[in-house]
Amino acid sequence: MALSSTAKDVGSGIAALYRRYSEWLVSITWKRFFLLSLLLLIVTSVLSHLPPFNWDLATTTTRVPSNRNVDITVDDHGVRIKPKGKRSQGAEVIIDEKGVQIRRRGDAAFGAPSREIIIDEHGVRTRPGPDTPDQTPPTPPKQPGARSSVGDDIQREVVEPLQREVAQAAREEARRHAQEMSHEVKDELATHDLAAEIRREVMDAVSELGQTERVVHIRLGNYLPQLAFLLILLSAAIKIAYAGRVKAEAHAAQAHHVAEEESLKRQVTEAKMAAMQAQVEPHFLFNTLASIDHLIEVDPPRASLMQKNLIALLRASMPAMREKATNLGRELEVVRPYLEILKVRMQDRLRAEVIVPEGLVSADFPPMMLQSLVENAIKHGLEPKAEGGSLTVSAEVVHGKLAVTVADTGVGFARAPTAGTGTGLNNIRERLKLIYGDAAELKIAENTPSGTRVTIVVPYKAT
């Protein structure tokens, strides 16, 4: 348990250190990062030559190819060592089955002749090179008429023939011995396969001749620049990756903040709407009750009809006020009794009509907006007009969106003495933006021949 706890502490410490280092990398600019990287490379290069980084940790010896100025050729014919360059004064060495031949090129400028040294079964001998002129003095021609002495005759007739015979016999004997020795060597080489072994030994010797030993000192400072460069690469990768992560977290935090702001705005707007409804509904309710009380005395049937419409209005509007989402059919259940009540109050001055296809009553629609548009049309458009007018509520689907329109033939938008401050319409705009964003809008236009057309456009969705 103690070991596990220690490992967790170490891991958490490393993670915290990584986060701090990453945050520091993100906080600096790329220009500063490159300057610090260059400074790090310079410092590590200097430290690698100072104690204790320049102390030897280990020493190894390796063989590396040398820069000898010779060409070494090893093939089936033997070994040939030849100096590089046409003017080189080095010796050329040929080792084959006949023996060893050493050729040294002469230099005519210094009077040095070419020489050849041959080592074979006959021993060691030297001879002039092929490019050395023969310097043996020519034998003077015999003068005609000169008389030879008796010694010369004996030398010519007796001694010289004997010398030739002895030399001939010696050469024959040497040739015979050489042939016997050559056959014996060839048989011995063929029997024991010494030729291949000799060739391998020569190749190994030549290989060692073409190599030199190098002592390598292993020091800690040798790896400091490489470690610094690796740290720079890792830091650049961390800076790029962590910068993206920080940006993503910042965007997420900003989105969360915006969502909270939008939620607060929606709550404020809903509170404003509720306050407005709390102010409008008692006023409308009191006026309606007063109208009913008056009609009970003068026209009881109309009073009864008005009372029934008020009950239907309250029954439909009370649940809608508490709901955040509803459909167009429920909104029409609030608007129809409201219009019937106003027809009783305004009598012939109000002509109302609802034109909504049966297939659209189930479409989603925000609550209390349609009733607000109807109230504004009557209060600021039709009631100020002496002869009154007509009001039409219609709905249709246009380009995949639901468009609900309230059109009146009143005095026109913002032309009545009772024109309001526009708070109701602004609240509707804010609620639409909070609920649907840019997918919904409120349109206000003039109606023909007079009056105002107000349209709410929302995304079409049937429930």
Q: What does it look like?
A:
It is a single chain. This protein is an alpha+beta fold. It contains nine helices and 15 strands. It has a six-stranded antiparallel β-sheet, covered by helices on one side. A five-stranded mixed β-sheet has the order 10-12-13-15-14, covered by helices on one side. A hairpin with a 5-residue loop joins strand 14 and strand 15 (452-459). It is rod-shaped and about 195 Å long. The two termini are 59 Å apart.
Would you state the CATH class of the largest domain? Answer: Alpha Beta
Percentage of residues in helical conformation:
40-55%
Summed up, the helix count is 9
Distance between the termini: 59 Å
Please give the number of β-strands.
15
Quote the CATH topology of the largest domain: Heat Shock Protein 90
Strand content: 15-25%
Main sheet specs: 6 strands, antiparallel
The geometry reads as: rod-shaped
CATH-level-4 superfamily name of the largest domain: Histidine kinase-like ATPase, C-terminal domain
Oligomer: single chain
String of helices and strands: HHEEEEEEEHHEHHEHEEHEEHEE
Enumerate the strands of the largest sheet in spatial order, edge to edge or round the barrel. 2-3-4-5-6-7
**Structural category:** alpha+beta
Uncertain stretches of 5 or more adjacent residues: none
Radius of gyration: 60 Å
Domains, number: 3
CATH architecture of the largest domain: 2-Layer Sandwich
Average pLDDT rating: 76
